[in-house]
Amino acid sequence: MRKVCTMLAAGAMAAPVAAHAQSDDCGNVSITEMNWASAQVVTSVASFIMEQGYDCNVSVVSSDTIPAVTSVAENGEPDIVTELWLNSTGDTYDELRDAGKVVEAGDVLDPGGVEGWWIPTYLAEEHPELTTIEGILENPELVGGRFYNCPEGWGCRVVSDNLSAALDLEGNGIEVFNSGSGQVLATSMADAVLEEEPWFGYYWGPTVPLGKYDMTKIDLGDVKPDVHARNQNADTDNPGVSDFPAAPIVTAVTSELRETKPQVFELMQNMTFKTSNMSAVLAWKDENNASADEAAVYYLTNFQDQWQNWLSDDARANLDSILNQG
């Protein structure tokens, strides 16, 4: 796939060849590139497909969640906002959607952002009872008697603190270790897995560690929305036990794009990455010190059974002519 990688890295996407033109001229399309790894991969994949499959002239806009949503509200651009974590937008996104200024195309990650408490899969296979929180509370020594918590200031820290209190981890012989940083938390997992030692703690995906290491999510019971909402409040006096719901992560477009570029809108509706696949791509990116464009090529090369179904027939033929060349 050296040719595809060169096209991405050199910016050849900005001038797709005439042979790839669709019957309807796509024209200019702007898309966000959020400042985290998975979003950058999504943008690279989407940009390549739009330019080489649909003959669009794509401009990439560096942004973050709130600035991107604010720009759509005030300026009607960019055309596409992807990897929009709805739990980070407050009421702004809902108000824009209800006012018809943005259109929700669909989920960009399936099942979304995954959060939870985890143990290594080798530990789960050796001690299946540890796959439930009840089993861990009954056998704290099997997980090393420690829970690796989120760093101070993270939203997951509040939820995990309240869960720890509701479950009385300390009273059940499990020390709560508050990680000093995200790097400390990730390193604790890596060190344990490489030595095949016990590890029990919080993590989320899509991320490099969940793509690199085989981890099993602990069953904390049902997701109880009212309990989870209470647990998100640091001052709650009534914490409870609820599993983490998947965080909805969507692609939104302007109403103008839906009306003027229906093929692109249909592509955005179909463009859904499996969260586990994205974690695997991020792990490959990390291991190979690769760019987002190179990670996009890796995804396009290794997950064709996933993304081929996103495309129109013409776009699929255009991309096949590129990807199947030497």
Strand and helix layout:
Blueprint lengths: L1 H9 L16 E8 L2 H18 L1 E8 L1 H11 L4 E6 L6 H7 L3 E6 L1 E2 L3 E7 H6 L6 H6 L7 E4 L5 H13 L7 E4 L3 H13 L6 E5 L2 H5 L2 E3 L7 H7 L17 E6 H6 L1 H9 L2 E2 H13 L4 H11 L1 H4 L5 H11 L3
Parallel strand pairs: 1-2, 5-12, 7-8
Antiparallel strand pairs: 3-11, 4-11, 6-9, 6-10
Structure description:
This protein is an alpha/beta fold and 326 residues long. Helices cover 46% and strands 19% of the residues. It is built from 16 helices and twelve strands. The strands form five sheets. The chain has a three-stranded antiparallel β-sheet with strand order 3-11-4, sandwiched between helices. A three-stranded antiparallel β-sheet has the order 9-6-10. A two-stranded parallel ribbon has the order 1-2. Strand 1, helix 2 and strand 2 form a beta-alpha-beta unit. Helix 2 crosses helix 14, helix 2 packs across helix 16 and helix 13 crosses helix 14. The longest helix has 18 residues. About 5% of the residues have low confidence.
